[in-house]
């Protein structure tokens, strides 16, 4: 078996040395008039060049191995972006990446504090933390601000529904109505999507939990907290001059896209193609992560 199926110099490579055979097959299928032969030959030469260039690029991609510093940088970026201050501090000390990547332990801890507040339903506290970190974030992100206020309204309604499972009285929802009137209603007319979201959220006070439509039950799903927390984390990272998404996530998405595209084009890929962050192919030597 070839070590690299994209290597054009590998005799086993079906896309390398068989190019001329493919072009000969085209000649058999296409009965090109003699007058067009010069143009046909030019096309075949150009096609062969493109195939060889493509195969070389793919061969380089498969053979590429990132350096230790690149791997460590990606790992450090993940620890910072996803909010692991303790692990990031230790890793920064062991790899000397603290200054190179603008490591800010306090900034990570602030983002973790905000995220935890959202995940536990303390949205008002989270908003206060955000304003303490950077008061301009919510002022310049009206959609994010609305999403936080909507989640805060949902948490107020959730508390009523959970404490009065049988049949909550209309007066139990007074705090929710007052909050919606003062915080969300003034924003709703500025965008139709805001108005729709507010109407759906207010409807939570009408239906009993077991009789709610599916789209309304989604508002009470705890995964909504995770979604909003992720949006806030991205905004905080962006405000700190960092990428809103960890590079390793983009790398995994790019690989998935490449595999899907290759399969759609019926292009064979190695079963063990790595994204370069493991050491299985070099026996644990060479470009292993520094720990």
UniProtKB/TrEMBL annotation:
Pfam families: CTLH, LisH. Residues 110-164 form the CTLH domain. InterPro entries: CRA_dom, CTLH/CRA, CTLH_C, LisH, Ubq-SigPath_Reg. Involved in the proteasome-dependent degradation of fructose-1,6-bisphosphatase. This is CTLH domain-containing protein.
